[in-house]
Amino acid sequence: MLSRWLSNKPRLADLSEQEIIALAISSEEEDASVYLAFASQLREDYPASAKVFEGMAEEEHTHRNRLIELHRARFGEAIPLVRRDHVRDFPSRTPVWLTKQLSLEKIREVTERMEADAHRFYTVAASQCLDASTRKLLGDLALEEVNHETIAAELCDEHTPSDVRQSEDDKAHRQFVLTYVQPGLAGLMDGSVSTLAPIFAAAFATGDTMQTFRVGLAASIGAGISMGFTEVASDDGVISGRGSPIKRGLATGIMTTIGGLGHALPYLIPDFNIATTLAVILVFVELWVITWIQNKYMDTPWSRATLQVVVGGALVFAAGMLIGNA
User: Fold this and answer.
1) Long-range CB pairs of 84-88, under 8 A, 24+ apart, other chains included
2) Distances in whole angstroms, Cα of residue 86 to Cα of each of 5, 11, 33, 38, 52
3) For 271-291, what is each residue's pLDDT tens digit?
4) CA 35, 41, 46 angle in degrees (round to 5)?
5) 209 and 176: one domain?
6) Is residue 1 part of a domain?
7) Per-residue model confidence as pLDDT tens digits over 227-256
8) Same domain, 189 and 321
9) 100 three-state secondary structure
10) Which of 87, 111, 137, 269 has an alpha carbon within 20 to 30 A of 95's alpha carbon?
11) Are residues 32 and 76 in the same domain?
12) Are residues 199 and 62 in the same domain?
């Protein structure tokens, strides 16, 4: 059914020159709306970058007007409604309403991809057209799409000099840390450290790998759910500026569960000694990962991060062994 539907959509090579111009007009309109949407999303937190995207939208409107004038001269006032999703091999665009949560850096990447797609379209479309005026305009637009990188750079120089851009990048990085890294790190630490005691207590108390795995699975999932809901309920992000509570809750809950499962999964191995040895090794790996994240994203010195994580983990691990052997 899907293949039959796809087969009914024409390829770019099947379009007439009028349809190619109509497709170019609608594409320029769509790209301009995407840039304006990006500008609207960035205006509050990144006003300088918002001006860059407003300038790029103006460029797309200029292209659209030139294409409309060409269509009016060749085919009249009635422009066929041909959109990118009507053509089988035309690059698709993510709907604007799905891009609201993109980071500043991701928006820049999407913009570069949009300009590259537009360049390829105009290059192919120009090669298909026989009319001299149409071919010239499409070829000119292909070159201008390549030059958009320069235009974007000029707009950035005008609206986002190096100090402003650095400030915006720092703000975006800080928001990423507050929304994802910090909650995720807290979850990973809690999952890795807090589950050490029950898992190893169960292991040394029972000597049964499957029972130990069940305890570890329950402790990990329970801790993940608890930490996730706690993060969501403790801060709505409005005053603190830490971002969406749902995102933070998911980051915390998922990383808490992963942290606990890391040293619970080895107990799926029937041999107790092998399972325990592997679990201990994985504990050290988890603690090293936590230390690395603290150093990279939280600017915590290696010595302090190592001391905090290793001492805390060692105390909980020792408590689990002592209780399990009691």
Assistant:
1) 84/23, 84/26, 84/27, 84/30, 86/9, 86/10, 86/23, 87/9, 87/10, 87/11, 87/12, 87/15, 87/23, 88/6, 88/9, 88/10, 88/11
2) 11, 9, 19, 25, 30
3) 988 988 888 888 888 878 888
4) 100
5) yes
6) no
7) 888 877 777 666 566 667 888 888 888 888
8) yes
9) coil
10) 137
11) yes
12) no
CA distance 130 to 17: 8
Closest CA to 118 of 42, 34, 48: 34
Q: Which residues contact 314 (CB under 8 A, 6 or more apart)?
A: none
Residue 14: name the closest of 78, 70, 90 by CA: 90
Number of compact structural domains in the chain: 2
The tokens 């937190």 sit on which residue? 45
Tell me the residue range of the domain where 80 lies.
Answer: 7-160
Instruction: Express as a percent the part of the chain with pLDDT over 70.
Output: 76
Indicate whether 117 and 17 sit together in one domain.
yes
CA distance 189 to 185: 6
CB 216 within 8 A of CB 198: yes
Please, is 122 exposed, middle or buried when counting C-beta atoms within 10 Å of its C-beta (0-12, 13-18, 19+)?
Answer: buried
